[in-house]
Design goal:
Strand content: 5-15%
Number of helices: 9
Order of helices and strands: EHEHEEEEEHHHHHHH
Structural class: alpha/beta
Shape: globular
Largest sheet: 5 strands, mixed
Oligomer: single chain
Amino acid sequence: MNLDDENESSNIIDRRGESGGGGGGFRLPIGGGKLGIGGMLVVGVIALLLGQNPLEMIGAVSGSGVGGPGVGQPQADAPAAPAALTGEHDKFIAKVLGSTERTWSAVFKDQVGEPYPQPKLVLFSEAVSSGCGPANSGMGPFYCPADRDVYLDASFFEELSRRFGAPGDFAAAYVIAHEVGHHVQTVLGISDQVQKARAGGDEVRSNALSVRQELQADCFAGVWAFHNRDLLEAGDIEEGLRAAQAIGDDTLQRQAGRGVNPESFTHGSSAQRMRWLQRGLENGQMSACDTFKARTL
């Protein structure tokens, strides 16, 4: 991506170096053993981009109930320092977020008729406390609807490249844009509707709703990319599609040595994630991203 002329977002909070309250460690719901960073990354990527509290994918957090504090129960705000954007990596993140702010402000004006409330992006390292509870860097990037912030440990991008074979600046930008897509869903009331519907159904129905929510966020990331085609360079779209493929549920289940079980999907198959990202990228309209009415995904 060519972000030379893009403005850096001022909505970045630097909380790197804080303990984040995550020292108690995370546990799987079965087996009772603490996960190391490698195990957390496997679970975290499966839980990546969930749009709800990502801690739902793991067991008790520091002795609290399953999933830790529930979504919609904000925790006390920790002191936050203005981001010191000195490194190129930081500036890249700030420019990507700036591009989402510019894009969604225009899209909301044209397609929604309302102003776009910009989210904050919290940079952290190792652990952080969010409105959705404590989180570990192994969870990967996530969006917390309780405080409407995106949380990111940038070391995840190295893992995305090295471990999951999805390198490139546009692959990293797609991940950020997807999380911002969950913010769009929250602003529009979609996340709240899905949360309520999931609470009243069985696990299979809950998973199916989660898949549709995730695929819509992929499509919204594609809408962002459509409106920023002038920033794209040769190979960028392929990088994004490769990242979408790498974090498909079926691909992750195979990599984990498990059989593919579509009823357990929470994010969608690789083919579905690529399809909806590309749909947004080719169309540029939010209306094209209504995964909840789509007969086939």
